[in-house]
Amino acid sequence: MFYTLTANPAVDMTVSCNGLVPNENVRSGSASYTPNGKGLDVSYAFKKFGVDSVALGFFAGFTGKFIVEETMNMGCLCRPVWVDGITRICAYINDGENEYGVLNPGAPITPQNEQELYKILDTAGNLDCLVVSGSVPPRASKDFLDKVVDHAQARGADVVLDLSSSKLKDLAAKKPLLIKPNHHEMREIFGVQIDTDDDARRALAMAHEIGIQNVLLTMGSRGSAYFSNGEDIWYAQRQFNIKLVSSVCAGDSTLAAFLHKWYDDRDNVEEALKLALATGANVAESVGLGDFGHVEEYSKRIAVRKLPR
Question: Is the model's pTM score more than 0.70?
């Protein structure tokens, strides 16, 4: 079974308005409040594909209670670690032309909270794969993520990492099954600006050299992605445009869709990439995960090719 870890979850407030005016009150046209966090989003997307998972994380206060309750209401299993404070609220504002994100730091955790999470990992049933996504909370131990990976791998579980920090490079020595950076994160970690296939080849090779087994590299608004298993590289590109409503959850649902098709059939890269990009595009056209209503149609309009070596 898949387990997901969201160490720093959030309630996302998504707001639409007709422009932002400095030093003035702006009335929004709509606002939504959704339980979020990158690992949680992966669990929610899995559920839409009929895949069960267990969501793990640290939760605090009335906002943490809201996230856990909504997660359970969606039919996802959740094993929370309760901490002091209030789980953060993050704001995403779309003014009709641009999207702005205001991300708060989150509730701090203690070594005791970390030990409780490690105990869950040590005793979890059917822990086949742990997906670790997103940021860490304030006051987390410097080796917190290292220990998370160690505890999961000690159980024989695969580890998938979707982290935006330089910690991703540090964890490469533990040979994670898969990482899912975007092109900005790859540039920050490996110093390669990815504009061409050759750029992608260089960055992907660098990731494999430091121990990473597989890489799903997403290219954001370009509507494309690369996948490399260390031997071959595939490139996928959507053949249609979308109207961006919110990028929140899009990358996480892309990862869930890819794992859904690829994890149990490692040769099924082409179909996994098609489903991944189609799902990400569908989610970007809605607030939250939406209903996945266009995924099947969009999958038919994704072109995939294997790059020459």
Answer: yes
